[in-house]
Specification:
By secondary structure, this protein is mostly beta strands. Helix content is 13%, strand content 41%. It has 3 helices and 11 strands; from the N terminus they run αββαββαβββββββ. A hairpin with an 8-residue loop joins strand 9 and strand 10. The longest helix is centred in the middle third of the chain and has 13 residues. It starts with a helix and ends with a strand. The N terminus is likely disordered.
């Protein structure tokens, strides 16, 4: 629910924010059965942000960066324990979306450090969530600030291996690939999502490890760049 314009103007005046200050917006959304305040990213800083360089194609023409989030959660997998040489199968991910826009002014290196720290813990405010659709496990879902994205892998080049210097996780499992996702239908306010600057999250090479479970999680953190018109 958007706050009435009159209240926004009054709140801005009370905080002593001039008209030249960067624009922020606040909304409320339903999450987990409770009302949660959602602080949207700084609009001016987002407009000037540049996606980290990789093999992925740039965002489609006409799109703008609406949210720069650090995802903090787990990549989820299953294993066929009857076949130790089989490979783990990805079954989705669950993550909180943390507002990383405050770090934009301090540069790409600072954002990378924030992402690595978020692998362990972060005090950045959460304003959204990422999960997979139970009805269609191949469809990643992102919710942030009243917008929703239901994605699929982009045609053409949709993934890149994480750089060699990426943080591989506490167990040296490796960092998951960088991705480009596009709207699979049913999205609102968002058209493309990039997963870049990944930390951890990769499954073991096979299911034959000692103590391997049939269903397991691997901790990860990453930057999610969410674009819309």
């Amino acid at each position: 629910m958007l706050f009435p314009t009159s209240l926004v103007i009054l709140g801005t005046a009370l905080l002593g924010i001039t008209s030249a200050a960067p624009q922020d917006r606040e909304e409320r959304e339903e999450r987990g059965g409770r009302r949660t305040r959602v602080r949207q990213n700084n609009v001016d800083a987002l407009a000037a942000a540049t996606l980290p360089s990789s093999c992925l194609p740039p965002p489609s023409q006409g799109l703008r960066l609406k949210y720069l989030s650090i995802g903090h959660g787990t990549q989820n997998y299953t294993c066929d324990l009857s076949n130790p040489t089989s490979k783990p199968v990805a079954i989705g991910a669950v993550a909180d979306l943390l507002d990383a826009s405050s770090g934009l002014s301090r540069g790409e290196s600072h954002l990378s450090d924030q992402t690595r720290r978020a692998y362990f813990q972060s005090n950045l405010p959460a304003y959204g969530e990422h999960f997979f659709n139970n009805a269609n496990p191949s469809r990643p879902v992102f919710k942030a600030g009243g917008d929703i994205f239901i994605g699929r892998r982009a045609d053409g080049i949709s993934s890149c291996p994480a750089p060699e210097n990426a943080f591989k996780g506490v167990n040296r499992e490796g960092a998951v690939d960088w991705l480009r996702l596009v709207d699979a239908g049913g999205s609102k306010g968002l058209s493309e999502v990039y997963r870049v600057v990944t930390a951890g999250g990769k499954a073991p090479a096979t299911c034959g490890g000692r103590g391997q479970k049939a269903i397991f999680e691997v901790r990860y953190a990453t930057q999610y760049w969410l674009y819309g018109a």
